[in-house]
Amino acid sequence: MKDFHRDHPQFSLCGLNCLLCPMNLGGYCPGCGGGAGNQYCAVARCALEQGGVEFCTQCGQFPCARYRKLLEYDSFIPHSRMVRDLERAGELGTEVYITQLKERRAILDQLLAGYNDGRRKSFYCLAVYLLEPDSLRRAFAEICGAVPADSSVKEKAITAVGILKKAAEADGVTLNLNKKPKEN
Length: 184
Prior knowledge:
The chain is elongated, with a radius of gyration of 17 Å. Helix 4 crosses helix 5, helix 5 (94-114) packs parallel to helix 7 (133-146) and helix 6 (121-130) runs parallel beside helix 8. It is mainly alpha-helical. The chain is built from 8 helices and no strands. It starts with 21 loop residues before the first helix and ends in a 13-residue tail after the last helix.
């Protein structure tokens, strides 16, 4: 939406972690209310209609039918954790939550810079988004220690993916997006 701006574009109205989205990484979307880019959003329009709430949880109608529909399927990042992430941001405070989100983004940036064979961007975004912060930190430290410096990028990627999958399994996390079935 034109002229839709928020104080925290890294973390969306509805609870998506925009900073970890492939669209944000690629520069196609500035995040929720971050300016020019992928700005059409029914939730943003609704937030403006509800008086410009910063997060959906501040609306008296939360969780409304529109919001619940968002939880059914994923786009570029998981929607299943939106409510949990909004609650966590409420408990920690938005600034602390965004600081943790930036830490995740720093790990994601390092994974993409050093362990991406050109086919792992979405997987790394998903893993960094879904793993608990401590598990993510441990997995990344293990990745850094397990990959010899002279390894090829392909070898680094295979090792990193294996370690992240193992961490996800230990956390009981499935590293898949819930895609909407194609209509016939």
